[in-house]
Write a structure and sequence with these properties.
Elements: E1 2-6, E2 15-17, E3 31-33, H1 37-45, E4 50-54, H2 62-67, H3 88-95, H4 101-121, H5 125-144, H6 146-154, H7 161-181, H8 189-197, H9 208-211, H10 219-225, H11 228-238, H12 244-252, H13 273-288, H14 299-309, H15 316-325
Antiparallel strand pairs: 1-4, 2-3, 2-4
The protein binds fe (ii) ion (FE2) (2 copies).
Length: 327
């Protein structure tokens, strides 16, 4: 049975039929089973708003069944088992004392991106809770192992933007918190780490066509995008996972010291220090990412722009500590 579907509603496992000659899209065939989220991104980036799915084909993925459970052509997902949220390699890499720190950083980074990918795909409370455990391990590693942190700081991948961005901002913010709080036990680094890594989780409640749009957003699209801090906050609140202080990170990471941020246009001291830390890491990562509408900046260029053109957005002392991370 062929059904029309918005590309933003596509799921891994669906058998998609693209309504166009294969010359006009990057895939080998016009119809195929979607094997990864990356393929969904490519379909959207090829400019399709709507495609068809053949519900008699494809392979079983739990989420797919939840949206098409009334479809009698499909058998219930009895054999399919979801992947574990936390890959075994993460723990193994973190605790392997023989692993060179560069390799350790690479493995930890890769696993973290994988976790974020799965969490964004299925952000239920149970997965938020599990990812929080993994984030705690990563935070302990960053706090205790300067060599691995050194390499983690220098991995700058932006391949699957929302997932790598979450990890990049998570790592950078934990490192910055370590520098700002200087080992003080007044701050719960596990809770903080979770707030940083999950700051953009609410993007799952924004139209994927906006999240994945290759160009700049229109004012109307920006309006929708501006709901994500509150949605992140709500999701963590609903999942009863983080302390209120750390949920504030999600709510305030787009606030700017000069009052030009969102959603509340808070100023200077109205913004919690955790929000101010996340904001710096967030802007840095956005500047160093390559997007179709802007070139990628290197670390030096990004820091220079932040200092010369955006300094009023940031807490100066915290920004200074951020710059020192790269020296
Ligand atoms: Fe954000
Ligand atoms: Fe962000």
């Amino acid at each position: 049975m062929i059904k029309k579907i918005k590309t933003g509603d596509l799921k891994v496992g669906m058998h998609v039929v693209i309504p166009s000659s294969w010359l006009k899209h990057p895939f080998l065939k016009n119809e195929f089973d979607i094997k990864s989220r990356d393929q969904i991104r490519e379909i959207i980036e090829s400019g399709f708003d709507e495609v068809s799915v053949d519900t008699s084909k494809g392979f079983p993925i739990a989420e797919f069944y939840t949206v098409s459970h009334s479809d009698k052509h499909m058998a219930p997902p009895t054999e399919w088992k979801p992947d574990k949220l936390i890959p075994d390699e993460l723990k193994e890499a973190i605790h392997d004392k023989t692993l060179p720190s560069e390799k350790k950083a690479e493995l930890v980074y890769k696993s973290s991106v994988e976790i974020m990918g799965k969490l964004f795909e299925d952000p239920k409370a149970e997965n938020i809770k599990e990812s929080k455990q993994a984030i705690s391990e990563i935070v302990d590693l960053i706090v205790s192992d300067n060599n691995t942190s050194y390499h983690l700081l220098r991995i700058t991948s932006h391949d699957f933007y929302t997932y790598t961005h979450s990890v990049n901002v998570g790592v950078l913010s934990v490192l910055l918190s370590k520098a700002v709080f200087n080992g003080s036990d007044a701050h719960n680094m596990h809770e903080l780490g979770a707030g940083f890594f999950l700051h953009d989780l609410g993007k799952v409640r924004v139209d994927p066509a906006i999240i994945n749009k290759p160009g700049r957003l229109t004012e109307e699209e920006m309006k929708q995008m501006r709901i994500h801090p509150y949605q992140s906050y709500k999701m963590l609140e609903e999942a009863a996972q983080l302390s209120e202080e750390c949920r504030i990170i999600t709510m305030q990471h787009h606030e700017r010291g000069d009052g030009t941020g969102y959603p509340r246009r808070l100023k200077e001291d109205q913004i919690h220090v955790y929000g101010r830390i996340c904001c710096i890491a967030d802007v840095y990562d956005a500047l160093t990412a390559e997007r179709s509408y802007k070139p990628k900046l290197n670390a030096f260029e990004a820091l220079k722009i932040m200092k010369e053109e955006m300094i009023n957005h940031f807490h100066r002392d915290i920004f200074e500590k951020f710059v020192l991370l790269f020296s």
